[in-house]
Amino acid sequence: MRTLLLLLLFIYEARSHAVSMPNFVLLMADDLGIGDPGCYGNKTLRTPNIDRLARGGVSSRSTLAASPLCKPSRAAFMTGRYPIRSGMASRSQVGVFVFSASSGGLPHSEITFAKLLKNQGYSTALIGKWHLGTSCHNRTDLCHHPLSHGFDYFHGLPVTNLRDCKLLVFLPLQVITITLLTLAVLRWLGLVQVPPCIFFCLFFLAALVLGGLLCFLHYFRPLNCFLMRNRDITQQPMSYDNLTQRLTADAAQFIQRNAKTPFLLVLAFLHMHTALFSSKDFAGKSKHGAYGDAAEEMDWSVGQILDVLDELKLANNTLVYFSSDQGAHVEEVTIKGEGHGGSNGIYKGGKANNWEGGIRVPGILRWPGVIQAGLEIDEPTSNMDIFPTVAKLAGSPLPEDRIIDGRDLMPLLQGRSHRSDHEFLFHYCNFYLNAVRWHPQNSTSIWKAFFFTPKFFPEGANGCFATHVCFCHGQYVTYHDPPLLFDISQDPRERNPLTPTSQPRFREILETMQEAAARHAETLQDVPNQLSLGNLIWKPWLQMCCSSSGLFCQCDWEKQVGRGSH
């Protein structure tokens, strides 16, 4: 009888422990603007599933990316720490990895929320975009790979969805061809005398361009644009055909496989980063061109994941989070003038700068029965906050050997607190402290002080169109002494900087914020620069290839592996 009672008690405790360990589904868009989803005010872009998620949970109007650029923002999201602490903040103009065979990446010494949850018995998966490095010393060490950072399963891109991965048109060749044909017709009509050497030079130039195109098709795309499943390449070069559907199906299957055990799923969408793509079911269907098509396809994917949770009766024990790594890329405009960047709503700027449009992103959390449905909050929070929130809910202590900059969101989400735990937030432009945000206790004001701002071009524009993204230092920025001060609570568009005349406490406010910045700087340690030139450059010994035929890497095992991996 005693043995039976002990057995029943063990079963009861095991079930109670399982119930107390919620599942986590973290959905991260790429370059989605806060003005894109319907639940944030968009009237023409159809996002019914993101809107459904918002109706069932909490919508934050002041979720802030820790960086306005994808790589440092994702490093902060994964670790709960400012990217400067991990060396994931560039000191040069190149702020992201552009080669799969670069040696930089998220250091193995960093602790991700996936590592913490794996130690608590969770099954963990990352599907989609990684972009935090691959290997260090040789192509098989995979020291920066998701599997080295706490994920049991990975299916996606080790780098990012580069525009070069989707070759749509080769403009130089078109220009040369049109020039040749035009000159030939004019000469035939006798309107222009064109020396034969001109035709020869143009033909020679066309041959060079064509040769470059062929080299690009055979070398760069396969070498940099490929899909992996765990440690193996499964498609090289990557195909966009039903890519969202394939990744979504794999995410759904991961949930189904782990329905009876606690799990963490990070679904990091390739949308909305260029090159824009969508399947035939969505292409040409939106009111916003290629961008709208891709956004509506991503929304469909969100709906598929929510449906799987409902079908398996997991919704009530699953915290779902939806956000974007930074604001929309406003400078993304095609040669035909079509905008391939999204909407940042009323906010100034966008991706790669710390005006509100670059860092204020959608932030939706749903957990039926635990988080109040339909609630909106406007307190400043950060994507770094997911780290301590998830860790605490999973029963994991936070690391004690490092500073965690994120704060637990649950008191705010459950109404136990009406104030953000972030009194100060620090906005970095890559390695450089760009701005400080201060939300004083017992005050509704949210002060934001800029030490420098990017030089928008052309004059009056809302971005750095001459350079495609804004840079963080040198001739590309304007330094401010005293810093440029705004009250975001009164001026969210950041149009009216305050002065000693308009704000009597001007100098007192700035002094407090500069003191906070100085205290913050004292907590920083020198760490290896993961985006140094040596870590950024392409290294042939790190290049991954799915075949042994040198640089001609061609394979497509997606369907075969997909059928056999479950």
Automatic annotation (TrEMBL):
Is Metal-binding one of the keywords UniProt gives this record?
Answer: yes
Please indicate which superkingdom the organism of origin belongs to: Eukaryota
- GO terms for MF: arylsulfatase activity; metal ion binding
Cofactor needs? Ca(2+)
Gene Ontology cellular component annotations, sorted alphabetically: endoplasmic reticulum
Under Pfam families, the record lists: Sulfatase, Sulfatase_C
Q: Does the keyword Hydrolase apply?
A: yes
Enumerate the spans annotated as Sulfatase N-terminal domain.
Answer: 22-395
Name the keywords, alphabetized.
Calcium, Hydrolase, Membrane, Metal-binding, Signal, Transmembrane, Transmembrane helix
UniProt xrefs under SUPFAM superfamilies:
Alkaline phosphatase-like
Which InterPro entries does the UniProt entry name for this protein? Alkaline_phosphatase_core_sf (IPR017850), Sulfatase (IPR050738), Sulfatase_CS (IPR024607), Sulfatase_N (IPR000917)
Report the leader peptide range. Answer: 1-18
Q: Where are the transmembrane segments?
A: 167-186, 198-220
Name the PANTHER family for this protein.
Answer: ARYLSULFATASE FAMILY MEMBER, STERYL-SULFATASE
Family designation: Belongs to the sulfatase family.
Protein name, per record: Steroid sulfatase
Instruction: Give the species.
Output: Phocoena sinus
- Give the lineage: Eukaryota, Metazoa, Chordata, Craniata, Vertebrata
